Amino acid sequence: MSVTYCVGLLLDAGMVLLSDTRTNAGLDNIAVYRKTFVFEEPGEKVVVLLSAGSLSVTQTTIARLEEAISDSQDATVETILNVPTMLQTAELVGRTLSDVASDISEKMSRAQQMASASFIVAGQRRGGGMRMFLVYPEGNYIEATRDTPFLQIGEHKYGKPILDRVVTPETSILDAKKAVLLSMDSTLRSNLSVGMPLDMTVIEKDALRVTEQRRIEADDAGFQEMSRAWSQALRDAFTGIEI
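Now predict its structure.
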C-alpha cells in the first residue's frame, strides 16, 4: 500500500507539482518509490503524472503507458504523446488506470482486498492551454479551474489549509513552490506514512517542457530552514492573537 501526498498547482505562470516518495507496507516495511513521471517531446508536448494508491496499480499503469509509447510504430495505438489534446490524455490515463485496477482487483478478490489508485495529470501541448486533471480509480476525472487552481491526491487533509488561504491563479511560481513545500511540511509533521525525499516539478507556461525538476532530500538545508521558519511564524501568530 502506498500512502502518499501529491499536489499540483495550475497558475497563470505555469504549473508546480510536488510528491513524496514513501511507500508503506507496514511499520517494518518502508521503501522509497518515485511517484512523479514525466512524458515530454520538448516544444510539442509535456505531461507529468503524480500517483497515489496501490503501488502495484500505479506501477502497472505507468508501465502500460510507457509500453504504448515504445510500440508507437502502430499509428492506431493511442499514447500519452500522440493524443491531440490534454483532455484526451486524461481520458487515456483514466482508461488505463481503470483497466489495471480491475485486473489486479480481480486477482486479489480471493483475499478480499481491493487495489485502487489515483493520478494527477498535468501538462500542455503546442497550440493548447495548460490543463490539470485528477483521475480517479474508476477512470473518471475532475479538472482544476480558476476557482480551484490546485489538486491533491493521497493524504491531503493536512496540507490543504495553507493552499486554500494563499494560492490563486495569480500566485507566482516562486510563491507556488513555497506553498507546496509548506503544504508538504504540514503533512510530513502530521502523518508518518508520508516521507522524504520529495520530487518537485515545474512547467512554465508555454515552455512545452519541464523547466525545473528537483529532488529534495531529508537533509536539505533550505527545506529544513523553511520548516523551522514556518513553525516559528505560526507560533508567533498564535501568541499574538487575542480572544
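The mean pLDDT is 92.
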